[in-house]
Write a structure and sequence with these properties.
CATH architecture of the largest domain: Alpha-Beta Complex
Helix content: 40-55%
Strand content: 15-25%
Shape: globular
Number of helices: 14
Structural class: alpha+beta
């Protein structure tokens, strides 16, 4: 076995670079050598970073220059009662976070949703996007390019799908800005989040566009996709999975469990999530959907940077009058661009794979895409529980005292 100290010495002497260590030792030894080097150069102790439970080789597709692992506490909420298009039943949802009181709050909302008979959830749209940008001489060539694209979607699909055994091209939407032509490709990537799949497939389709039109490719991503950035196009058109969860909470249950009323929660939602968000120029009209999305992403191996799009959600609250004069609460959350998968990427890491096992959603579904749909629906119900709990705490003026009681 190679001595980590020997690797460090060879790096110090300029014989090796940090990213080359796996060429001369196994992955765990290479990670140990990097830790030793960092400890000496920064005068730190990386004992906790180096105390990880999976073989470093398992992380090779996910990280470069590995030194160890960042360990985030993981808890569980639930059972999450879901009647969905793909999810059906009670699910425990693993959440990884450093924010105290978050899981307690989500569990409080789930208790009320469960007592109300559970929540409905549906994926209403699906399409991972990649939008290359092309240069043309002017609007005449732009129009010529757009016309060809619209007449040849089948040919573009054949080219794109030649790169994947799973992905399917759904649509190509053209946009023209001066001498720039953007083509927003949308794919059904089944149970994969599918960003890499969409990128590779679009690259192949772009070669056909260049061969058949005056357009010249400038960049495979022209930011109209739009990936990992706040963008109105994702709020309107969706990206990944668009999913909505809703529930009707009886008024007496609100008063008994959440110590508030339907009218109180509706007013808090209107003034905070709708008017306040509009005044702030927010693209998300919700209380804290990103909390549940981010924690679920870390736990289940999703791309954490795509929490930006996952926070692109609208929370709706309305009163429902019963014949007996009592008032119930209609509560919903609609996430326009939730980008999740159950295969590929970080879902293959051991701890994240175990979290998906808890959900019963590890790997590909039958039919293809059903596991990722189910994950989206469960996360949406979790986010709904978080919205309900926080709005109730605000309308009953219990938010600060709740954090104080939990010592957070």
């Amino acid at each position: 076995m190679t001595d980590p100290e020997d690797l460090v010495e060879r790096v110090d002497e300029g014989e090796l670079r940090l990213h080359e260590l796996e060429d001369h030792a196994d992955h765990d030894t290479a990670a140990t050598a990097r830790r030793l080097l960092l400890e000496r150069e920064t005068d730190t102790d990386l004992e906790a970073v180096g105390d990880y439970a999976f073989p470093a080789e398992a992380a090779e597709p996910n990280i470069e220059n590995m030194i160890g692992a960042a360990q985030v506490p993981m808890g569980v909420v639930g059972p999450v009662p879901v009647a969905g298009g793909a999810a059906d039943g009670d699910y425990y949802l693993p959440l990884a976070t450093t924010e105290g009181a978050l899981l307690a709050s989500v569990n409080r909302g789930l208790t009320v949703i469960r007592a109300a008979g559970g929540a409905d959830a549906r994926v209403t749209k699906n399409g991972m996007t990649r939008a290359p940008v092309f240069q043309v001489d002017g609007v005449a060539e732009a129009a010529e390019t757009v016309e060809w694209v619209e007449d040849n979607v089948d040919a573009l699909a054949e080219a794109a799908e030649s790169t994947t055994s799973h992905g399917e091209l759904i649509d190509v939407e053209p946009y023209v800005v001066g001498d720039s032509v953007y083509l927003r490709f949308a794919y059904d990537t089944k149970d994969a989040m599918g960003m890499n799949m969409a990128t590779i497939a679009t690259g192949e389709a772009c070669e056909l566009v260049e061969a058949e039109t005056p357009a010249s490719l400038v960049a495979l991503s022209g930011n109209l996709c739009s990936d990992k950035k706040p963008a109105a196009v994702n709020a309107v058109e969706g990206r990944g999975r668009s999913v909505t969860a809703d529930v009707v909470i009886p008024g007496d249950l609100l008063e008994d469990r959440l110590h508030t009323t339907a009218e109180g929660i509706v007013e808090a939602n209107t003034r905070k999530n709708l008017i306040g968000s509009a005044k702030a120029g927010s693209l998300g009209f919700n209380a804290h959907a990103a909390n549940v999305v981010g924690a679920a992403f870390l736990a289940t191996g999703q791309d954490e940077a795509q929490v930006v799009e996952g926070a692109n959600a609208i929370t709706s609250m309305d009163t429902r009058e019963r014949d007996d004069g009592t008032t119930d609460l209609y509560a919903s959350v609609s996430l326009a661009s939730l980008e999740v998968g159950t295969v590929g990427g970080g879902t293959k890491l051991p701890t994240q794979a175990e979290a998906l096992e808890v959900l019963g959603l590890r790997g590909g579904g039958d039919p293809a895409g059903s596991n990722a749909d189910a994950l989206a629906e469960i996360i949406a119900v979790g986010a709904l529980a978080g919205e309900l709990s926080l709005l109730a705490a605000l309308s009953s003026r219990h938010l600060a005292s709740a954090h104080e009681d939990l010592g957070r």
